[in-house]
Design a protein that fits this description.
Elements (H helix, E strand, L loop, with lengths): L3 H26 L4 H32 L12 E3 L5 E6 L5 E6 L1 H20 L26 E3 L5 E4 L4
Antiparallel strand pairs: 1-2, 2-3, 4-5
Helix pairs in contact: 1-2
C-alpha cells in the first residue's frame, strides 16, 4: 500500500500528463503545417498513453488502500417507539444481539455525546469533550410484562410490535 505522499504524487502525475496531452491537442489544432500537426498529435498520443498507464496504477493504489464496501444492516439499529422511547439494537463483544431501551431524553443525550465525540475525532484535536456534555441520567426500569412496544411510523399510526431477540 503506498504512502499518502506517494498517492498524491501519483495523482499529480496523472493530472500533469493529462494536461500535457490537452495542451498538445490544442496546439495541434492551431498548427501552421501538416508536419507540425502530426508532431503535436503524436505527442498528445504519447501523453495519453502515459495517462492510461498511470491511471491504472492510481486505481490499483486506491483500491489497495481502501477497505471493502460497507454492508447494509439487516435490521433497523435505532427505532423510535410510539410511547416516546427509542430502541437501540446493538451487538456485544461476543456478537450477541442486544436491545437497549432509552427514554427520549436519554436518546437525545446519547446522540449529543456521539455527535460531539465524532466532531472532536474529525477535528483531530486529541481531546475528549465528554466532561462538558450533559450526564445521561438513569431512567426508571421498563415494565417487563412480556409486551413489546409499538414502532412509531411517519403518519403517527402504530406499527407492528417490536421484536426483541
Amino acid at each position: 500500500m503506498p504512502t499518502d505522499s506517494a498517492l498524491i504524487a501519483l495523482v499529480n502525475d496523472v493530472c500533469g500528463q493529462f494536461a500535457r496531452a490537452e495542451v498538445a491537442r490544442a496546439l495541434a489544432g492551431h498548427a501552421t503545417s501538416h508536419a507540425e500537426h502530426a508532431t503535436l498529435t503524436e505527442r498528445a498520443a504519447r501523453f495519453d498513453a502515459l495517462v492510461d498507464e498511470r491511471w491504472r496504477e492510481l486505481v490499483k493504489a486506491i483500491r489497495a488502500g481502501l477497505p471493502g464496501a460497507a454492508q447494509v444492516e439487516r435490521f433497523l439499529p435505532v427505532r423510535p417507539l410510539t410511547n416516546g422511547h427509542v430502541e437501540l439494537h446493538v451487538h456485544d463483544t461476543q456478537a450477541r444481539r442486544l436491545v437497549v431501551l432509552l427514554t427520549g431524553a436519554q436518546a437525545l443525550a446519547v446522540g449529543a455525546h456521539l455527535t460531539a465525540n465524532g466532531a472532536v475525532s474529525l477535528d483531530r484535536i486529541g481531546r475528549k469533550l465528554d466532561s462538558g456534555l450533559p450526564h445521561v441520567k438513569a431512567a426508571p426500569p421498563f415494565s417487563t410484562n412480556g409486551t413489546a412496544g409499538q414502532l412509531a411510523t411517519p403518519d403517527g399510526a402504530a406499527g407492528p410490535p417490536a421484536a426483541h431477540p
